[in-house]
Amino acid sequence: MALQLPAAFQERMKSLLQDQYERFIASYDHDPYSGIRVNTLKISVGDLLASSPWQLKPIPWCGTGFYTEPGDRPGKHPYYHAGLYYIQEPSAMAPVELLDVRPGDKVLDLCAAPGGKSTQIAAKLQGEGLLISNDLNQERTKALAKNLELYGVRNGVVLQEHPERIAASFPAFFDKILVDAPCSGEGMFRKDEDMVRQWTEESPDKYAAMQREILKSAANMLKPGGRIVYSTCTFSPEENEAIIAEFLLEQPCFSVAPPPSGLFAPGAAGWLRGHMEESDQIPDDIWEQAEQTSRLWPHLIEGEGHFVAVLQHDGTGTDEPGRFLAATDRGSSGGARLDGKGKNRKDRSQGMPKKGKGTTKKPAGDDPAAQLEAYGNFVRDHLGFVPGGYTIMFGQHVYQSPLPPGALDGLKAVRPGWYMGDAKNGRFVPAHPLATALRPQEFCRVLSLSSETGEAVRYLKGETLNVEADRIRCTDGVLPKGYVLVCIDGYSAGFGKWQDGMLKNEYPAGWRWTSA
Q1: Are strands 130-134 and 156-159 parallel, antiparallel or unpaired?
Q2: SS3 content of the chain, % helix, strand, coil (to 5)
Q3: Under a CB-based contact definition with an 8 Å cutoff, are residues 116 and 146 in contact?
């Protein structure tokens, strides 16, 4: 075993695993497993398998997940940049599968960055319902937002907030909540040696205190009858079964829902009862439930170490209306809708600023009504549908939000919805996330580039392309000149602007292909 594990960690694992310890240690000689998960918002599993250049083996616990082989480089293929799959460690796919997300659910991913589990949730929602993805770290929320945008998520909101602040705005609101809690990361030692260097004997207790508070906030946000999945990537019982046992003791309306039989090992509550000083204060039935949690051991499955607990609410209690439910009645700035013809109509909740004493008149191009008109004209002229949700404006930025205006007041929103573009000086400039979430039939001009000829890679590198007019597929009455939805083998990747045989590249600099 080349990896040097902390001696204190090894002693604990010997005590926890006993006769399985040698098999566990031997697993560190195996290379970490890798996988991809198909983005069914854009492509079916069958179509991805038919066009994949790699040999893919199914992951048993995720119907859209597949193992890749050592040496495969799925991040260096144009399909990755078209958002057709997400590269994800196989064990990390299990928590969302056990969350049982259905189209139309309102779902919260409370510790979401960098976004693997949020994109998995979004695919299960299939554009219906609501996904709020949250993370406290500013840099990590940037990666979270980018991954959701690459994936083509239309009904998502990205927050950077403390859980208790979200709970104050959304009490008893969500159908499903995922708590992929910050943890000591013991299950990732094989995959990330930095986790080994950061680990100390005090790490489990430090994280456990944080996990208790996060789970408490999650319970306050769940609808009666809803479901919470609590997961970690650590082996520490103090961060796993102990957290669940304490939670069940304090929240009698919850119970552990057993996972599908045969997939994973049971929880290690028995070991914990013999090592936890307060264990005799917890009733036997709660320990029995803690045994019904799931452990993903790297010596028993093809994946890294994980813990998953499914917490089901019994349905008692009454729904408390979230603060946002009253927002449209009290008035809130910045919201509007489009009517069925693509024209602007002021929403009752919009509360547009009024000119009064002491105010400075804005240029016409910066007037909210003019901005909304420019956006409405773009929708009418370029899209084959009227985007759903609420039109929300933050300065010149235009979003289609699944939440009404005022719902996020007081919360730090990184993305309040689907980012459509910028309206300024009487013009609307579409944003890249608008393109990545569109289907080819939804835009007035479409160009499909081949992943095999090198043309797609040139586009992804930001190059200007020579494109003949007859390659631009236009809807009736539309000429080739103007914004074009650029696709890779028929799947949306970004925008370009075509004129006189030249496609000006609109692919963002920060997203571009950087490998040779």
Answers
A1: parallel
A2: 35, 25, 40
A3: no
pLDDT of residue 319: 53
pLDDT value of residue 278:
75
From the list 233, 444, 474, 487, the catalytic residue is 233
Residue keyed to tokens 């002491």: 358
To 5 degrees, how large is the angle CA 304–CA 310–CA 312?
Answer: 170
Cβ atoms within 10 Å of 32's Cβ, excluding its own: 16
pLDDT on residue 2: 67
DSSP states of 229-264: EEEES---GGGTHHHHHHHHHH-TTEEEPPPPTTSS
Coil, helix or strand at residue 415: strand
What does each C-alpha distance from 211 to 138, 232, 243, 287 come to in angstroms?
20, 10, 7, 19
CB atoms within 10 A of CB 18: 9
Nearest C-alpha neighbor of 302 from the set 14, 10, 31: 31
Strand, helix or coil for residue 511: helix
Tokens of 260: 């599908």
Residue ranges of the chain with pLDDT lower than 70? 1-2, 318-365, 515-516
| Whether the Cβ atoms of residue 296 and residue 268 lie closer than 8 Å to each other | no
**Cβ neighbourhood burial of 247 (10 Å; 0-12, 13-18, 19+):** buried
Q: What is the dihedral of CA 115, 121, 123, 127, to 10 degrees?
A: -110
356: which 2 tokens? 């009064």
**What SS3 state is found at 406?**
coil
Distance (Å, rounded) from C-alpha 183 to C-alpha 127? 31
Task: Count CB atoms within 10 A of the CB of residue 99.
Answer: 25
**Which residues have C-beta within 8 Å of that of residue 243, sequence separation ≥ 6?**
181, 208, 211, 212, 215, 230
3-class DSSP assignment, residue 72:
coil
Catalytic: 253? no
How far lies 81's CA from each of 74, 117, 125, 432, in Å?
Answer: 10, 18, 22, 12
- The count of residues in the chain is 516
What is the per-residue DSSP string for 264-329?
A: SEEP-HHHHHHH-TTGGGS-HHHHHHHTTSEEE-TTTSSS--EEEEEEEE---S-PPPPGGGGHHH
- Nearest-Å Rg of the Cα atoms of the chain is 25
Most distant pair of Cα atoms in the chain: their distance: 80
Beta-sheet strand order (sheet of 335-338): 344-346, 335-338, 390-394, 397-401, 418-424, 427-430
CA-CA distance, 82 to 387, in Å (whole number)? Answer: 21
Identify the pLDDT of residue 333. Answer: 33
Which amino acid is it at 85? Y
Per DSSP, the residues of 18-55 read: GGGHHHHHHGGGSPPPEEEEE-TTTS-HHHHHHH-SS-
- The pLDDT assigned to 514 comes to 85
